[in-house]
From TrEMBL:
It comes from the Bacteria. GO terms for cellular component: efflux pump complex. GO terms for molecular function: efflux transmembrane transporter activity. This is Efflux RND transporter periplasmic adaptor subunit. Residues 91-118 form a coiled coil. Keywords: Coiled coil. Residues 287-343 form the Multidrug resistance protein MdtA-like C-terminal permuted SH3 domain. The keyword Signal does not apply. PROSITE patterns: PROKAR_LIPOPROTEIN (PS51257). Residues 206-278 form the CusB-like beta-barrel domain. It comes from Salinarimonas soli. InterPro entries: Beta-barrel_RND_2, MdtA-like_C, RND_pump_MFP. The lineage of its organism: Bacteria, Pseudomonadati, Pseudomonadota, Alphaproteobacteria, Hyphomicrobiales.
């Protein structure tokens, strides 16, 4: 009779003991990670600047004589050749000046002819004793004066004809009309700019360089890519650097020659000038997502041969828009976790994948 209560008590004790036992924790599954193998290379510092394609020579053209614009023969954007007419002045007054100069030239020639004939007669009379030396000298002086008036009339006629030719404004070189600054009916002064022509022979890239980049500018290797053709790179050579900064932007204007520019490089296009300068450091370029900082400074997770990550402190040389440049702390060939570094634990086994798993 005493055995049944004893068995019941033992069963209750075993049940209570089983309830008090803690369940075993399930093992964490291997976490998939993306890695990148560390490779050191010579540090190349690059800086990029926005540039604009401009002509090396851009000239404001104007008439060499005053007058009223009669015709405009080109528009902004037109391609022109050397000697091509751009504008024409009303040449009525200029033609009258040519006619006046021609009449004065004819009068001077007639006066010279008469003076030479008179000098010949006096010379003959003097040989016969019928003329004095004083009369002969006066006629000689009058003849020389007539020759001077004739020469002056010829020069005046040449000037008048030149002025008439200046009534047509011509392009001085092959290029593109970038601005038209006068319209028909407008009265312009001599030398006033009426058209702007950009020469197409040489093109250059114009860049505004901040003060901090001046030291790197002269030693760096420069190249240019067009926004419209980013896959094609052109050689760029620094041709000119302004001696003083712009008072508003505090930048220096730099002009880069483009010796290999082809037809794809058009005036007014936007481009990017890249300055590359090699430094003495050797760095490993890794994504910014690989960087971890738990309060003890920059570090990275390195996966060992057993597939377990270990946190290593690193020395950062520089930060870029997408990458971090590591100087020390890593070895060539190390596999660095590049994504999800905030969710890793030391010693946790990881599984390296080629693409992100969801």
């Amino acid at each position: 009779m005493h055995s049944r209560p004893l068995l019941l008590g033992l069963s209750l004790a075993a049940l209570l003991a089983a309830c008090q036992e803690k369940p075993k924790e399930a093992a964490k599954p291997d976490r998939p990670v993306l890695v990148q193998e560390v490779a050191f290379e010579a540090r190349v510092q690059e800086r990029t600047f926005v540039a604009t394609i401009r002509p090396r020579v851009e000239t404001d053209l104007g008439f060499r004589v005053p007058g009223k614009v009669a015709r405009r023969l080109v528009n902004a954007g037109d391609a022109v050749t050397a000697g091509q007419p751009l504008m024409v002045l009303d040449a009525t007054d200029l033609r009258l000046q040519v006619e006046q100069a021609e009449a004065e030239g004819r009068a001077a020639e007639a006066a010279l002819t008469q003076a030479v004939a008179e000098l010949g007669r006096l010379q003959a009379l003097r040989g016969q004793g019928w003329s004095t030396a004083a009369a002969y000298e006066r006629q000689t002086a009058a003849t020389e004066e007539a020759r001077g008036r004739t020469a002056r009339a010829e020069r005046a006629l040449s000037l008048a004809r030149n002025a008439l030719s200046y009534a047509i404004l011509r392009a001085d070189a092959d290029g593109v009309v970038t601005a038209v600054l006068a319209e028909p009916g407008q009265v312009v002064a001599a030398g006033q700019a009426t058209a702007r022509v950009a020469g197409s022979a040489e093109k250059e890239a114009v860049v505004a360089i901040p003060e901090a980049g001046i030291g790197q500018l002269r030693e760096a290797e420069a190249s240019l890519t067009l926004w419209s053709s980013p896959d094609h790179r052109y050689e760029a050579r620094l041709r000119e650097l302004s001696a003083s900064a712009d008072p508003a932007t505090r930048t220096y204007l730099a002009r880069f020659a483009l010796p290999g520019a082809d037809d794809r490089v058009q005036l007014g296009m936007s481009a990017t000038v890249t300055l590359r300068e090699k430094g003495g450091d050797r760095i490993a370029r890794l994504p910014l997502s690989a960087l971890f900082n738990g309060g003890g400074g920059p570090a990275m997770w390195v996966v060992d041969a057993d597939g377990r990550p270990a946190l290593r402190p690193v020395e950062v040389a520089a930060y870029e828009s997408r990458d971090v440049l590591v100087r020390t702390g890593l070895n060539p060939g190390d596999r660095v976790v590049t994504l999800g570094v905030q969710k890793l634990d030391a010693g946790q086994r990881v599984r390296i994948v080629q693409a992100l798993e969801f």
